[in-house]
Write a structure and sequence with these properties.
Radius of gyration: 23 Å
Shape: elongated
Distance between the termini: 44 Å
Number of strands: 9
Number of helices: 8
Helix content: 40-55%
Number of domains: 2
Structural class: alpha/beta
Strand content: 15-25%
Largest sheet: 5 strands, parallel
CATH topology of the largest domain: Rossmann fold
């Protein structure tokens, strides 16, 4: 078992240069993350704003105000960095792709996570794989990439953490209820990123079809696969709706993404959610 895990890690490590390059390209074309650029306790200048009556005379910046006929207050930049924690589904099924020319769900998950990490680190925030130490600085995304190679289990969420769960969410609803409830009880919130392969979405199978579980221990042979398409779609949508409603109730809104679609829009939506969470 340990040897298999080692070989899997080596295989994934071989993908890291490509994933990091894709993540950098994705981040380069994405809207920025403001990071800690907001008012707070610190020494660095952030911006001037108009003086308000409740500020009193003590907060007036007289040097700036002397240039015109308005009073200004000098605001400082908040210095305390926040941390975004990533959890990526370790299930073997998450490594699957219906087309060798298309990225697997896991590859796309890592690319999105690292692109967001690049933007957050650039904004002065910290990033980390849940259960491992957080990272900061210019090399944080690269270090996070190696951290994400480790098998991920359930770990206690840091208090009031920002958590990003990236999965296909095929685990039973009760599993996700337990996982998200535990995180919410610790004051955590964040986002759910649901990644799907187009074959899982469209169910293009027809005729006699053998379905194999990723573990290889289960299989199902259907004589006319198309006959179950409607029921499959109904059950899939019902499960996803339950996950979506659970996440919304507990502070984890959901983003859905297909691996045959460009990753940019999904990253932009994720940035919007996390920027709001960090505000």
């Amino acid at each position: 078992m340990a040897e298999r895990a080692r070989l899997d890690a080596l295989a994934l490590a071989g993908d890291l240069p490509g994933i990091l390059l894709d993540a950098k390209r994705l981040a380069a074309n994405a809207p920025g993350v403001h990071g800690r650029r907001r008012e707070g306790q610190g020494e660095a200048f952030w911006q001037y704003r108009d003086h308000r009556p409740e500020d009193g005379a003590r907060l007036v910046d007289w040097r700036r105000s002397a240039r015109g006929d308005r009073f200004y207050v000098r605001e400082r930049e908040r210095e305390a960095a926040q941390t975004a924690w990533f959890w990526i589904d370790p299930d073997k099924g998450f490594e699957w792709s219906s087309d060798p020319a298309r990225p697997s769900k896991l590859y796309r998950a890592r690319t999105l996570a690292l692109a967001l990490a690049i933007l957050l680190a650039r904004g002065g925030e910290r990033v980390g794989a849940l259960g491992l130490p957080s990272r900061a600085g210019a090399r944080a995304p690269e270090r996070l990439a190696h951290d994400l190679l480790a098998p991920m289990g359930d770990a206690d969420a840091p208090t009031r953490a920002c958590l990003i769960f990236i999965s296909d969410f095929y685990a039973p609803l009760e599993t996700w209820r337990s996982r998200l409830s535990a995180a919410a009880s610790a004051g955590a919130s964040g986002a759910l990123v649901m990644i799907a392969d187009p074959a899982e979405e469209d169910f293009p199978f027809e005729g006699r079809t053998l379905f194999l579980a990723p573990s290889g221990k289960q299989e199902a042979l259907l004589g006319r696969a198309e006959s179950v398409k409607a029921e499959y779609a109904s059950r899939l949508e019902s499960h996803r709706r339950a996950i979506r409603e659970l996440g919304a109730r507990l502070g984890f809104p959901m983003i859905q993404h297909r691996t045959d679609h460009a990753a940019g829009p999904a990253l932009a939506m994720l940035i919007a959610l996390i920027s709001e969470r960090f505000a």
